[in-house]
Design a protein that fits this description.
The chain is mainly alpha-helical. It is built from ten helices and no strands. Helix content is 65%, strand content 0%. The longest helix has 32 residues.
């Protein structure tokens, strides 16, 4: 019988970006979870399309938002993040056994919301005369997934609580730039994404604290140690502290941001 964790490998290994999103959205969360299964992927993960070309993030250069190409480039960069977020959520589902069933259904629901985000952004990108893959992108999100693949605490502590939480900080500025350049539809999509991402980061906070409690660890001290151990990006202002509070960050954690 197919389980939810086994089913996650299908879209994770899918190499077509749109099909990846569609297959993720089609997954049935009512499947038995299979929490104790030890799974092995039948193909390389994550499945990647031939485009976009992946280059160092330092080589990616913005273009003026006064041009359609400049706005499309920025929308494309967000779409690329959302496609990576699908893979990150699916990877958590299959890779780490032995956790409560709610852990897996949470991350599968998150994968489906990331797929919805990707499809909205891709549709808008097409309306601008471009498509996903038309611009280069970076691989920083998946690089961190590979670095944290042996420890679920590190994965949950760093990916949703650091990298995705950074999206909460960046979203208002990106929205303001696009809306200021006249792209109101992009602004509407970013509002949808921000609302959902608060829930995603909240799930990261909830399961991070669950894992810390299970191991008898202090969440704040452990987070600082994980950031150093895995060389996670240093967080810089501005911080969207209102969104971070809604996502479950404690005041001590917000104070530590500066």
């Amino acid at each position: 019988m197919t389980t939810l964790r086994l089913a996650a490998l299908g879209p994770l290994c899918e190499t077509d970006a749109v099909r990846k999103a569609e297959r993720t959205l089609a997954l049935d969360l009512r499947l038995p979870v299979g929490r104790d299964e030890l799974l092995t992927p039948a193909a390389l993960i994550p499945g990647r399309p031939p485009k976009p070309a992946l280059i160092a993030h330092t080589l990616l250069k913005p273009k003026p938002l006064s041009t359609v190409e400049g706005r499309a480039l920025l929308v494309h960069s967000v779409a690329h993040i959302e496609l990576n977020a699908i893979d990150l959520a699916l990877d958590v589902v299959w890779r780490f056994p032995g956790l409560p069933d709610a852990f897996y259904t949470d991350w599968m629901r998150i994968a489906q919301e990331e797929a919805k985000h990707f499809m909205l952004l891709r549709e808008h990108l097409c309306s601008l005369g471009y498509d996903y893959g038309d611009f280069a992108a970076h691989n920083a999100l998946w690089d961190m997934a590979e670095r944290t693949q042996s420890d679920v605490l590190a994965r949950i502590g760093i990916v949703p609580r650091t990298l995705e939480a950074r999206g909460l900080d960046a979203s208002p500025g990106v929205k303001n730039k696009l809306v200021g350049a006249g792209d109101h539809r992009a602004g509407q999509i970013l509002d949808i994404i921000l609302e959902d991402e608060i829930g995603h980061v909240a799930a990261g906070n909830r399961w991070y604290r669950y894992l810390c409690q299970a191991r008898g660890l202090d969440p704040v001290a452990t987070y600082a140690a994980l950031i150093q151990q895995y060389d996670a990006p240093k967080l810089r202002p501005p911080f969207n502290k209102a969104a971070r509070r809604l996502a479950g960050f404690e005041e001590a954690e917000l104070d530590a941001l500066g």
